[in-house]
Amino acid sequence: MANLKPIEQKLAENARMINGYLERALSGQEPEPLGKASLHLIEAGGKRLRPYLTVKACEAVGGRAEDAVPFAAAVELLHSFTLVHDDVMDHDDLRRGKPTVHKVYGMPLAILAGDLLFAKVYDVALKNRPPGMPPERLIECIDKITEATMTLCQGQALDISFPCASDVSVDDYIEMVGAKTSALFRLCAQVGALSGGGSDNQVDTLGSFAWDAGVAFQIEDDVLGVTADEATLGKPVGSDLREGKKTLINIHALENATGEQRKLFDKAYGVEDASQKDIEAAVEALKEVGSIAYARGVADEYVTRAFKSLDAIPDTPAKDELKALVEYFVKREY
Amino acid sequence: MANLKPIEQKLAENARMINGYLERALSGQEPEPLGKASLHLIEAGGKRLRPYLTVKACEAVGGRAEDAVPFAAAVELLHSFTLVHDDVMDHDDLRRGKPTVHKVYGMPLAILAGDLLFAKVYDVALKNRPPGMPPERLIECIDKITEATMTLCQGQALDISFPCASDVSVDDYIEMVGAKTSALFRLCAQVGALSGGGSDNQVDTLGSFAWDAGVAFQIEDDVLGVTADEATLGKPVGSDLREGKKTLINIHALENATGEQRKLFDKAYGVEDASQKDIEAAVEALKEVGSIAYARGVADEYVTRAFKSLDAIPDTPAKDELKALVEYFVKREY
Hints:
The first copy, chain A, is 76% helix and 1% strand.
């Protein structure tokens, strides 16, 4: 771990703790194929950004990290459940560089593994209440988990319902990303703050912070999709282009690219058999049109808003770590 | 309603109340296609046996029916969620005589509608706590909902994992039915009794009653699959035969049918293009082998066990209604 940045070291430490917890929560599941299918995506790795956010939100209100761990595990289970089902719906073959659950175990077990992971979210949250958490607060956590999940379903349905990016405005995009990504980020901060005994105000404030950070995170994800390399992405570069995905970059290009740049974009956008050369030319066009810079600018605005929310939270190392987390995933150059 | 039996009248009244509640709980869901997909199966009807069981368990411990209604709606949402997903997994085209959700709205929205229904289970249970229910009791309800769902997932996985009925013993069948059907019946009785302020003992006793009743119900469902008509079933008669389903009847026949009867059975069992005549001949063979009578006998044993559990519950009209419910669905000749 010698070359890791401090935030990367902290994420790795946190991930080890959360992974151990998750493996225990899912171990011994019968019948075996269901157990394996539910663990498949979790074992494929991931940075565990959401559990880290949960733990740090707990510490930021003066709580102990260990009290947040069950909820941190619960949000990762919720995240996994949505990814497993999304991959079935989108017929995606790869996730985190590995074959998706339905590719390995078939569609029926993938649906079922997602359902089980969803139930486990509640199971883990209910069975491991931090000592001293009043029952009404646990109910509030369960309620927020439920609200977030309903919003996630809505976001995914919006994504499915827009047939193509040309029908999607920037506002639609922000609404969709809010529902698909920010709702879960907000949940992490809320249940983290609740598990740490934060005030209602702190729960809301950290929730707002995480919502805005989530939007920035998703936009940066779009940016990485055309600027990072395949090993980092765990999927081919430019697949968002080839698949005609509704990213902020593509929406901007559809509204602003003209002439030669538009031609290059159209040769790759939504074209299943576009060559790697077509993709590279389209990425160049995106740069020239300013679509990538535009997306980065919007992400920066959301980071500024997120940090502003944190002004209302006392200065602590945890608050600095929350900021470092956002800076890490918005400015990531890995 | 002049020709309805008393239990049928009561079920119909209860269904009206529950349906109104469910429609309100799911109304206004955005985006519209998701809202429609989630309501599709609920609007297709059904007797609402499970909500009735919930309400009557509440009354049987001295509670007020209205206090059980949110939980009665929640168990029906849970039932719907599992049916919508099961139909996707099993590629079934018909349910309650209507096209399944994925047939009408496509696989992605069907998965999503199931997920939303699942989240709504918790939403409805959390947002409508009966006045005076202590928070710890609500947590107990949420915990039992979660436990039951994990068991349902396990049951469905067992069903998927057994490749064919010849590998399934009667004990395997009972285990699978317990997990797939009885776990939900038990949940109904448990949350009903909890919402009515029942003692821990009463919650357990009514849970045991409902577990055994659930096994009897499922076996009777197998029997109806070969003895009822298509209008009653909402699917073709004998489709359990044609599809090679692991019903108690088929398991018995595989172990006991020989000679001519076995030949007739084999001509229909698991044979996708079996003619209606083949099916009818196979059903005759099942009768001659005694497989249908055997299944009915096992169902009766479970009814006896279920009724025995009720001995520990005070005599009330609700207790009689619980018995009448079981008699209705085990001896149904509709």
